[in-house]
Amino acid sequence: MRSLPTRLxxxxxxxxxxxxxxxSFALSVRAIATSAWTPADVxxxxxxxxxxxxxxxxxxxxxxxxxxxxxVLAALAVGAGLPFFLLCAAGGALSSATLTGxxxxxxxxxFVTALAAxxxxxxxxxRQLLALAGVVVGxxxxxxxxxxxxGAGGHAVGTAVLxxxxxxxxxxxxxxxxTRVDPVAAAVAVCLPSFALTLLAVTTGLLPSQLHRxxxxxxxxxxxxxxxxxxxxxxxxxAYAVAIRELGAPRAxxxxxxxxxxxxxxxxxxxxxxxxxxxxxxGVLVVAGxxxxxxxxxRPATPARPASHVxxxxxxxVDAPLPAAPVPARPGLVAGRxxxx
Length: 341
Fold this sequence. Notes:
By secondary structure, the protein is mostly helical. The chain contains 13 helices and two strands; from the N terminus they run H-H-H-H-H-H-H-H-H-H-H-H-H-E-E. The protein has one domain (4-296). The longest helix has 29 residues, at 4-32.
């Protein structure tokens, strides 16, 4: 059995890799707009590279997916697949990497809570409601900053598109919690239909593609393949699984909130973005809200009572995984449910 320092070091290293990949997702999505490549080109890499890496497990995964409910498969494929990617690419093109890194993960707890209340009549705790209020205020500050500025409007539209991406990812989050398949099969459920749809859209001309026109591969495209395909598509899920196992879900989720901070710090030197003071204020509110939402306060010890006098409380809304982590669960476990082996 490994010592506690070893487990802690392994978990922190895995979480550092996860945060780096999550931040790279926001930066690379924004970089699409300034590159010679189209979102469809990058989408082919985002969903095609994981299929190549996971090819040895593809037959087994397909067998397991046959037993999954169609609604859950649709939630996985839509929520983290091509629709989510295109929304992020459009929102990033209309705003900035900083907003992409803030708005999408910041809005996920809000939408997950709302959808869970709508579908299953769950009730968030008072602490979670206060945390979500902070997220809403932070996003409002971010959007309002652009609306009140001279010649405003671009970032506000981009923020709205990124909110839509957060909503779509929330559908994936709920699907991931409901699925009975293992993490590899869940990744296949995302990548296989998304790659097929992207390829169909490119070959029919529905989505423009430089690759389809025969453009030569350059270093930028290789970076997209590394970040989006290998990093987001494969490494983020595996690293986050290790982090959850070694650190626990609450601590891993809390450390994950550092991703927007890393995006904001990196966007200026890498993409030449300038971050306004009010956007930083809004970002602090969003990150603080996400941290408070994921926090699990210690409960004071209470004397044991007879079982007949215990009044069960309504279940608390569980934490939502941050975007760009396609398989946020331990191998063999998906959203706390045992995967079928």
